[in-house]
Specification:
By secondary structure, the chain is mostly beta strands. It has helices at 7-17, 55-68, 170-175, 221-229, 334-339, and strands at residues 51-53, 78-80, 95-101, 105-112, 116-122, 124-131, 134-138, 143-146, 152-156, 162-168, 181-183, 202-204, 218-219, 242-246, 260-266, 275-277, 281-287, 290-294, 297-301, 306-309, 315-319, 326-332, 345-347. It has 2 domains: 51-183, Sandwich (Jelly Rolls); 202-347, Sandwich (Jelly Rolls). The radius of gyration is 23 Å and the shape is globular.
Length: 349
């Protein structure tokens, strides 16, 4: 629909402007060169574009970062991914990076209203994160949470460089102007205890059944993988294969109020059906090889690669191997969208 943008209406707009007010109709007014005004969109547009970051390109940069920034007491040694179509972040609500600390190094203690997850890429039994006084081991593919406003510091007591994946809700918190930050004043916080394992806290993403449990900031890979393996023969999702939610055991809700973590297993030869949803998703390839078709982009991935599928983008996953599983760790912003009633999914065939 259109309307006649008369001279009288233009004069009225000028009067409103003097009061720092504008009529909504100005959004649909023709431009000065005579082009038609904007029309109300019938569906959202994707924020950002599909993009993959290859581990073979990233790992040399991680090594160089350890040389360029020899100590990590003044700045986190994190390499943040930038979506080419966005100002700074990987998706409109998500920031993703890889962080490294050197042997026998401590990443100092601080806290912020930004929530974060840490998925370990190269860890060991002598790497741990302290969250509000509790130390959580960071072995390969463990997931450790640092919830909003929790004190946290990272310790590498080993002789090796260690690396993990960070995903944070930085763009969301920034857009809401809710960014608080505080340093402890000491590099470390007192450790109250150091648990050896973390409860897996996982359930099928297609099942809403819940059971009571205890809060825990660590999800051990050994138990996570065992849960995946226990579902042999289960059909799972036509779109995502065997996909599990990391459940917050204190609330039985999503992993964190703004970030939902999942682990998905694509069986040999899996060829998923396309779908799209209003949430954005970032991926880390735990193992295997495959391709994700997102819009017009084909992203060929292998172990340790990272990629993003923006909101409301048709996509499907394919496991390229006829004999080996592919496993993907993912983080999405569905908790925010569900809480505001804006989550929507559309299935293809």
């Amino acid at each position: 629909m259109s309307f006649e943008y008369t001279d009288e209406l233009k004069l009225f707009d000028a009067e409103l402007a003097e009061l720092d007010v504008y009529g909504q109709w100005t959004l649909m007014a023709p431009s000065e060169d005579g082009k038609p005004g904007a029309e109300l969109p019938s569906e959202p547009s994707a924020a950002g574009v599909p993009k993959i970051w290859k581990w073979d390109d990233l790992f040399p940069m991680i090594r160089k970062a350890c040389e360029a920034l020899p100590e990590s007491f003044t700045a986190r040694r994190a390499l943040a991914f930038k979506n080419p179509a966005l100002p700074r972040s990987v998706a409109q609500t998500l920031q993703m990076s890889v962080q490294a600390i050197r042997p026998h190094e401590i990443a100092w203690s601080h806290r912020h209203t930004i929530a974060a997850i840490r998925f370990v890429i190269d860890g060991n039994s002598n790497l741990y994160t302290v969250v509000d006084g509790t130390a959580y081991a960071m072995e390969d593919h463990d997931l450790v949470l640092t919830p909003s406003w929790s004190w946290h510091d990272h310790h590498n007591d080993s002789d090796d460089i260690v690396v993990w994946l960070d995903v944070l809700d930085v763009p969301l918190v920034g857009s809401l102007h809710q960014g608080f930050y505080e340093e402890l004043g000491e590099s470390t916080q007192p450790i109250q205890n150091r648990p050896d394992t973390g409860n897996p806290g996982l359930r099928p993403a297609w099942n809403d059944e819940v059971t009571p449990g205890q809060a825990n900031c660590r999800y051990s890979w050994s138990e996570t993988e065992a849960m995946l393996r226990s579902l042999d023969g289960i059909h799972g999702s036509d779109h995502d294969g065997i996909i599990l939610d990391y459940v917050n055991r204190a609330t039985q809700g999503p992993t964190l109020p703004t970030l939902n973590c999942q682990i998905q297993r694509l069986e040999p030869g899996f060829s998923g059906q396309p779908h799209r949803h209003t949430s954005s998703v970032v991926y880390f390839v735990v193992r295997g090889e495959g391709v994700t078709e997102a819009g017009e982009t084909k992203m060929h991935w292998s172990a340790k690669d990272c990629f993003v599928v923006p909101n409301w983008t048709w996509h499907r996953h394919v496991n390229s191997s006829a004999s080996e599983d592919a496993i993907l760790f993912t983080v999405n912003d569905t908790p925010v969208l569900r809480s505001t009633g804006h989550y929507r999914e559309e299935l293809g065939s």
